[in-house]
Design a protein that fits this description.
7-stranded mixed sheet; alpha+beta; 343 residues; single chain
Length: 343
């Protein structure tokens, strides 16, 4: 009898230890896979010097560094072979972007008829202290407008009421947005009246299915859902240049509250937005990358592999000259490129 009870206790203890270990592994995996912050955004440009001048003069960015990167490690990161890339790092307020010109090999341009509901659409939102002044300023650089003019979100949209927005394109056709916040909206730093252009609030990507995108960005990458809204009406139509626009918007944020956020734009109407071209690569001008810093890239890589995510890089790789220790590039469910980095 004593022996039987001992064996039963041993099996029970073993099972409990196994369950505890499994639970700990799950918790550890979740913690390590958490997205610490969105470190910035990478745009591929056709002419780096022209692009730097535009972002400095039209939007108040400051170039903080420039480098040329080449070699087999960069090839593995990007899936583009024989790469030689000029990279300029620019800062606005606390936020950063990188402009990359592929000296070799050059990629494809953004389609001239690109629309807001096309699934390759991605913009980032630059916050201005005064919309009217900012609008007049950027118009002086011959930008192509998406919006008919700056739009004020109406009182019927409680979450965003009073926010002013204007969408336009840079010289390569990358969509951009200007935002101003009323005193009761946004972060305190967006109320600074000492400068015209203040920083980057978020980036927005068009998605086909909010739930599917949430499974990638929240459940795998580790961002947190911060809120959701449904935007419609004449203001949204004029803002997006899209007749009958009905847009399901979902906001996400990383662990660090000071980081820019990410928004999903799911266009319920107009329908028929085009899919991201099959085979789009980082040297194509439409392949804007969201740079996400994570705790443990190896743990996250295994998680992404189990989730059958589309990989651009075959595995995490270290690239000399980059401002992170190792990185991995993948596609989200709609083909948006994501650069996951570990510092």
């Amino acid at each position: 009898m004593y022996r039987i009870r001992t064996e039963h206790r041993t099996r029970t203890d073993t099972l409990m230890l196994w369950l505890l270990a499994a639970a700990l592994a799950l918790v550890t995996s979740t913690v390590f896979a958490a997205a610490r912050e969105i470190r910035g955004f990478v745009l591929t440009v056709s002419d780096l010097d022209r692009a730097v001048v535009f972002y400095e003069q039209a939007l108040g960015f400051e170039k903080v560094s420039e480098r040329t990167v080449t070699g087999r490690d960069l090839d593995y990161l990007t899936g583009v072979f024989g790469t030689r890339v000029r990279i300029a790092r620019l800062q606005l307020g606390d936020e950063f972007i990188e402009l990359e010109q592929y000296v070799a090999p050059a990629g494809l341009p953004i389609p001239v008829d690109s629309r807001s509901n096309d699934l390759w659409f991605q913009h980032f939102a630059v916050v201005a202290s005064d919309m009217e002044k900012a609008y007049e300023h950027v118009r002086g650089f011959g930008v192509q407008s998406i919006s008919s003019a700056p739009q004020t979100i109406p009182e019927t949209n409680r979450a965003a009421a009073g926010i002013k927005a204007y969408k336009f394109k840079d010289p390569d056709g990358h969509p951009l947005e200007l935002l101003t916040f009323p005193p009761d909206k946004g972060r305190a730093k967006w109320q600074d009246k000492g400068r015209l252009f203040l920083g980057i609030d978020h980036s927005a990507i068009t998605v086909a299915d909010t739930q599917r995108s949430t499974r990638f960005w929240r459940d795998l990458v580790g961002l947190q859902v911060a809120g959701a809204n449904l935007n419609t009406g004449i203001t949204q139509e004029q803002l997006d240049n899209a007749f009958g626009a009905v847009v399901r918007i979902t906001g996400l944020k990383p662990e660090r509250e000071t980081s820019p956020g990410l928004e999903f734009l799911q266009y319920l109407t107009p329908s028929g937005g085009r899919a991201t071209p099959i085979g789009q690569r980082p040297n194509d001008l439409g392949a804007t990358r969201t740079v996400v810093e994570v705790d443990d890239l190896d743990v996250l890589t295994a998680k992404l592999q189990a989730g059958k995510v589309s990989f651009i890089s075959p595995q995490p790789v270290s690239v000399p000259g980059m401002p992170w220790r190792k990185g991995l590039m993948v596609h989200d469910p709609d083909g948006h490129a994501v650069l996951l980095v570990e510092p």
